[in-house]
Amino acid sequence: MSTEFEQNLEKYVEVILKVGINLQKGQRLLISAADIGTPLLELAPFVELITKKAYQMGARFVDVIWDDPQLHLIRFQHAPRDSFEEYPTWISNAFIEFAEKGDATLLLYADIPDLFIDQDPELMAIRRKTAAKHFKPWSDLRSKNAMNNTIVAAPVDGWIDKIFPDLPPNKRKAKMWDTIFDICRVKQKDPVSAWNNHINQLHVRTNYLNHKQYTTLKLETPGTDLTIGLPKGHIWKSGSMTTQNGIDYTGNLPTEEIFTLPHKDKTEGVVTATKPLDVDVVVEDFSLTFSKGRVVKVTAKKGEKMLNKILEMDEGMNHLGEIALVPHSSPISQSGIIFYNRLIDENASCHIALGRGYRFNIENGDKMSDEEFMTAGGNVSLRHVDFMIGSGEMDIDGLLENGTAEPIMRNGEWAFKV
Asked: Hey, is 237 helix, strand or coil?
């Protein structure tokens, strides 16, 4: 007889394949790490279970690109300093090939915070930019909903030690699995139905905001006084989306957000992060000042140099590519845990993203060239970095074209009925 954990793990995999990816019979599936800090080898039993279930659901072929962050650490420590523009193109080519054929991708995101804290930020920035250049064709296809793809989390040593330092080491992994099962609705009697209901509720609010077509959002909370302009024809999205070939999928598990495209040149004011940001190193207590859509000032108590390196990647990293709304009452927020993981933390809090905007967040965006997208107000960049700005004190107003302000959120919760 299987244990309760084994039953929940099987249900989690079912949610990933049926709700997240919505894997189709005859599709191929590529599994990989979402970032260089994820020790995929440690998750081998989990990956093997996903692979088994994918074949049982009718997958034609499943392949895995394994990764080990210790190898990246060794490279930063010992590789020639002039070698960081080298990149194994077979990896990016595999992603591009799967996307071009409309096949599925699953990314596991479980970075170890501060693994690279003592490494040269310049080398890390060069490595990031090099990888981003090679992955740009895949990122562009993803931004246009060319394929069903999902990002999920699973516990790994190092990460769970950061989250649960007060627990005995032998209890941390079980606690993290249990937490993931909770925030991903796995423990409910029928998790797939629970997810369908949740996604439908998100869609109702998404439809409301799309009907309003606000020209501007006004965000206020302690440390934040920010105005974000929205481009004409912007589209709010949430939960489930649909690929170009008609497959519904959920890009993030968990997901609690409703998000759209800011106008890249119409952000003004100051915004203060409400949670740490893990980007190779942890950036804490930081704020950004915007003028005419561009970051003009950065402050951070920890990780400021790394934050500036992110902004230096390209011009687009100095502008916004996403604004997302999440109620403070979300299950992730109510857990009281800081996860040091953008996939999970962004679904605990309203957030914005520096860098690349998504083409599916504006009318006919999938048909636009980069120049046309930017003319419409979209942002083009090699990277997309979310950071959290919401709290139980967040107020958000939407401004109509005639200047009328309407409440969207008050004290971190939805202020409109649907």
From this structure: strand
63 neighbors 30 (Cβ within 8 angstroms):
yes
- Spatial separation of the C-alpha atoms in residues 43 and 7, rounded to whole Å: 18
CATH classification number, 4-183, choose in 3.90.550.10, 3.30.2350.10, 3.40.1830.10, 3.90.1150.10: 3.40.1830.10
pLDDT at 1: 58
The H or E element that residue 75 is part of is: helix 69-78
pLDDT of residue 303: 94
Q: What percent of the chain has pLDDT over 90?
A: 98
Among the listed residues 231, 351, 350, the one whose alpha carbon sits nearest the alpha carbon of residue 293: 231
| Structural contact between residues 327 and 395, judged by C-beta atoms closer than 8 angstroms | no
- Strands of the sheet containing 258-260, edge to edge, are 237-238, 258-260, 320-325, 351-355, 384-388
234, 266, 272, 393: CA torsion to nearest 10 = -60
Q: What is the pLDDT of residues 17-73, one digit of tens each?
A: 999 999 999 999 999 999 999 999 999 999 999 999 999 999 999 999 999 999 999
Residue in this structure with the two tokens 């190193």, named with its chain if needed:
281
DSSP label of 34: S
**Distance, CA of 349 to chain centre:** 12
d(CA 145, CA 102): 9
Q: How many helices (H) and strands (E) does the chain have?
A: 12, 20
Other Cβ atoms closer than 10 A to 75? 17
Among 216, 343, 228, 279, smallest CA distance to 37 is for 279
User: Residue 239: what pLDDT?
Assistant: 86
Question: In which band, very low, low, confident or very high, does the pLDDT at 304 lie, cut at 50, 70 and 90?
Answer: very high
DSSP string covering 129-197: HHHHHHHHHHHHHHHTT-S-EEEE----TTHHHHH-TTS-HHHHHHHHHHHHHHHTTTTSSSHHHHHHH
Strand locations in 197-319 (E): 216-221, 224-229, 237-238, 240-242, 248-250, 258-260, 267-272, 277-279, 281-291, 294-302
Please, where in the chain does CATH 3.40.1830.10 lie?
4-183
